[in-house]
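Colleagues,

For the teaching module next term, I've prepared a clean inverse folding example: a structure given as tokens, and then the sequence designed for it. I'd like students to try predicting residues themselves before seeing the answer, so please don't circulate the second half yet.
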């Protein structure tokens, strides 16, 4: 429950969910955060007269702490503040010399990728069925389709990225594999990988979960938590998948590393081998990031997916523990603070869906308008570029906040150029 509170009454531990002004006018990047220091309280007091907080028992004044507990808490505050400051730095300073530049528009590239997406969908379903039956993987066909996807990503990554919004819970494993491939290729492009490296990365990403075909469906689709025995079976998809790929002609070792290492974690807490830091390797670390991102932002049998914006925020908190910190920062740059498919509210009160990124000005994407300021539907399909779009009084239009998936009954897919494929 939200409660309006004068900024002079704020305390460390309170969760600020709303300000008395647009978030973009403050140094706070995320829309909603827990106060972790007196310095943040002073910042809020400089910018606001009042805020809205989420009321809960956890936000009451904590009991007195021992000197050791106080020192540990202060260290946590310093660490979290450094993370938050660094996030601002990440978003404010994109790559200075991108290796690739868009050579097609979203509209031009969509015409090409519709067929690529359909072919990939058919291919991965066929591969998974073959693996279930003990048949060999069509490595030549897989390489061909991955090469086509990589070429499209190089031309303009936004078209295939739009297709990552197509999600059916009952086809999670196949669609997840396609989405992870698209995300890995897009991330690899952002990092400046050469074309042959993108092909190796994309091949491994498309096949990273192939070992799940040897795990019982009732384990994969169980709606509740797994017990120890079930979790051991689930984890076995990694070595099973590696074995399948190693026994398949034409699958290069760097591609296999994506399957081998996509559940390893930077701190050494992952599986199967408990690899740590750079032991995981670049392809393994990329695989782990994009696999996790798609998993937490998708509906599963046992949980509802969070928004892409919230997923990036959560994964940023997991950097150093789960993910290479520099790569995690670059992934946020790659996806943008407002990823494609995000439902956003503008400072005009209008609500829309982000349809394509602006790789030079990441806070100024193109947005398909869905609702007017009075929350009535926009009468006709309208996509605006926030670099040029103005309010009625001539002021620049900007994104005020990100809304949760499903708000106002909005299905983002209906406003992306992929509907013909659904």
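(Answer key — instructors only)
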């Amino acid at each position: 429950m939200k409660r309006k509170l004068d900024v002079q009454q704020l305390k460390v531990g309170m969760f600020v969910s709303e300000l008395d002004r647009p978030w973009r006018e403050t140094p706070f990047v995320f829309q909603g955060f827990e106060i972790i220091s007196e310095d943040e309280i002073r910042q809020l007091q400089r910018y606001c007269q009042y805020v809205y907080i989420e009321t809960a028992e956890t936000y009451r004044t904590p009991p007195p702490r021992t000197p050791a507990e106080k020192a540990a808490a202060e260290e946590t505050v310093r660490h979290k503040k450094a993370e938050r400051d660094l996030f601002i730095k990440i978003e404010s300073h994109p790559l200075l010399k991108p290796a690739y530049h868009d050579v097609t528009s979203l509209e031009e590239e969509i015409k090409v990728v519709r067929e690529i997406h359909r072919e990939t969908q058919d291919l991965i379903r066929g591969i998974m069925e073959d693996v279930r039956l003990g048949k060999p993987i069509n490595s030549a066909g897989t390489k061909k389709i991955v090469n086509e996807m990589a070429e499209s990503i190089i031309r303009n990554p936004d078209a295939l990225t739009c297709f990552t919004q197509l999600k059916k819970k009952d086809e999670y494993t196949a669609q997840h594999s396609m989405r992870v491939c698209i995300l890995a290729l897009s991330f690899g492009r952002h990092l400046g990988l050469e074309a042959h490296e993108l092909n190796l990365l994309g091949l491994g990403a498309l096949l990273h979960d192939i070992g799940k075909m040897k795990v019982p469906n009732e384990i994969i689709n169980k709606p509740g938590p797994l017990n120890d025995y079930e979790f051991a079976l689930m984890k076995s998809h990694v070595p099973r998948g590696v074995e399948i790929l190693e026994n398949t002609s034409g699958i290069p070792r760097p591609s296999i590393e994506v399957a081998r290492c996509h559940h390893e974690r930077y701190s050494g807490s992952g599986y199967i081998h408990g690899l740590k830091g750079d032991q995981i390797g670049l392809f393994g670390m990329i695989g782990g990031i994009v696999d996790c991102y798609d998993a937490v932002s998708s509906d599963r049998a046992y949980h509802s997916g969070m928004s892409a914006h919230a997923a990036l925020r959560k994964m940023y908190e997991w950097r150093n523990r789960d993910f290479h910190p520099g790569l995690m920062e670059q992934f946020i740059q790659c996806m943008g603070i407002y990823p494609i498919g995000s439902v956003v509210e503008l400072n005009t009160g209008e609500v829309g869906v982000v349809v394509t990124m602006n790789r030079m000005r990441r806070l100024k994407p193109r947005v398909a308008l869905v609702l007017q300021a009075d929350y009535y539907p926009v009468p006709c399909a309208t996509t605006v570029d926030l670099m040029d779009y103005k309010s009625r009084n001539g002021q620049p239009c900007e994104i005020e906040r990100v809304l949760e998936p499903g708000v106002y009954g909005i299905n983002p897919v209906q406003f992306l150029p992929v509907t013909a494929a659904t």
